[in-house]
Each structure stands twice: as C-alpha cells, then as structure tokens.
Amino acid sequence: MAHFTKVRALAFDLDGTLIDSAPGLASAVDAALTSLGLPAAGVGRVSTWIGNGADILIERALTWATGQKPESDLIRDARVLLDTHYATTVESGSKLFPGVKEGLAALAAKGLPMAIVTNKPTPFVAPLLASLGIADYFSLIIGGDDVVAKKPHPAPLFLVLGKFGLLQEELVFVGDSRNDILAAQAAGCPCVGMTFGYNYGEPIATSQPTVVLDHFNDLLPALGL
C-alpha cells in the first residue's frame, strides 16, 4: 500500500529519531542532581523522560529524586545546572543511529526539503547537527525555544508547513515518541514512527503512526521514493 503518495518534504524529530542522545542527557541530568545533593538517575531512567523539552525533563528527574512534586524555584535552579552541564556533554554524549547519515544523504539526493522539529532547547541544536556532520541536510530547524507550544502541540509542524509552503498531506513527519505522532496527527500530516527511540518505554505502534519502521534504512523504501 502506498501511504505517502503526495510527499514533498520531510520533517524529523531529533532525540531518539536521528540521534541517540540519552548518554549525554543522562550525564547532564545526573550532574545536576548530584550538584543538588540528590541521587543520580542513570541513563536507563533518563531515557524514559526524554521528549518534552528540558524543563519537563528536569522536573521528571527531580520528582523521581525527591519523591514529590518539586517547587518552581528548585526546577529553575536545576534547569540552569542542567544546561550548564549539558553544554559539555551534548556532543560527546550523542551519536547518530545506524543508517541515519546514509539515509539522509539518499533523501537529499531526491531533492526533498528537510526540517528538524525538536523540543530540545534551540541553542544546542545547530551545533549538535554540525558536530555529527548532518547540518547541511536541513534547510529549516525548529527547536523548543522557537514556538510557544512544543510537541505534542501541532504548532511546530504548522510552522514547517508555512515555511515550506505545503499542504498537510505533503509533509511527512518522522519521530520516535507519542509526542511526535500526536503532533503530526493534530497537524493533519502523515507520520512515521521509529521503534528504536525512547517513547517513555512504550511501543510506538500504540500511538498509531501512519507507518511503523524498525530501522532508519527502511524509510526511503517506505516513502516510495
């Protein structure tokens, strides 16, 4: 069955879709927690908290570490610590998932415009893409600071549609979490759910993306390109 007969552009989530960023994020979260005299969470736990942006990430970490809902002042202080530590771990603690660089190159060869749509704080995104050697594939980057409402709200995808001048059915969004799928569905865009990401420990198929894929190399054939 041809699911993507009208595709004219692609948008990608970042963490858990293109890059395995959990080690770097976990190092930063644990450093922030230990700076506050709290226990470290470890990469296994932190990977289940990724996807809603840094504020919610650190709030989840604090809730786990303290056993209660943290006060806003503590969240603010911990977020500052998180950003400080993440600046030193974001590149060394991130790597591309298998097949991503080759897959992006093949998609670029088809002449499709591509965008990044991530809840990651915007200042970290472009340097990370450059360090991984994939920055040139993307003509548009939308980070967590570039929209009032982050995914799962459709606002970031509406922004992509406007920038690229597309109808909803012409943009395919590729992600790994329910936030990505919900955002695409709310925007009216077809979407691909990758099984190798984080997604809070849940199967991505539960969110009913248009297509579920197990490997990034499966994307090009699935798009029918």
Automatic annotation (TrEMBL):
EC numbers: 3.1.3.18
Pathway: Organic acid metabolism; glycolate biosynthesis; glycolate from 2-phosphoglycolate: step 1/1
EC supergroup of this enzyme: hydrolase
Annotated active site: 13 (nucleophile)
GO biological processes: carbohydrate metabolic process; DNA repair; glycolate biosynthetic process
Binding site for Mg(2+): 13, 15, 176
Gene Ontology terms: cellular component: cytosol
Cofactor entry: Mg(2+); chloride
Reaction catalyzed: 2-phosphoglycolate + H2O = glycolate + phosphate
GO molecular function list: metal ion binding; phosphoglycolate phosphatase activity
Superkingdom as given in the UniProt entry: Bacteria
Alphabetized UniProt keyword annotations: Carbohydrate metabolism, Chloride, Hydrolase, Magnesium, Metal-binding
Function noted in UniProt: Specifically catalyzes the dephosphorylation of 2-phosphoglycolate. Is involved in the dissimilation of the intracellular 2-phosphoglycolate formed during the DNA repair of 3'-phosphoglycolate ends, a major class of DNA lesions induced by oxidative stress.
Family: Belongs to the HAD-like hydrolase superfamily. CbbY/CbbZ/Gph/YieH family.
Complexes and interactors: Monomer.
Protein name (database record): Phosphoglycolate phosphatase
Species, as recorded: Erwinia typographi
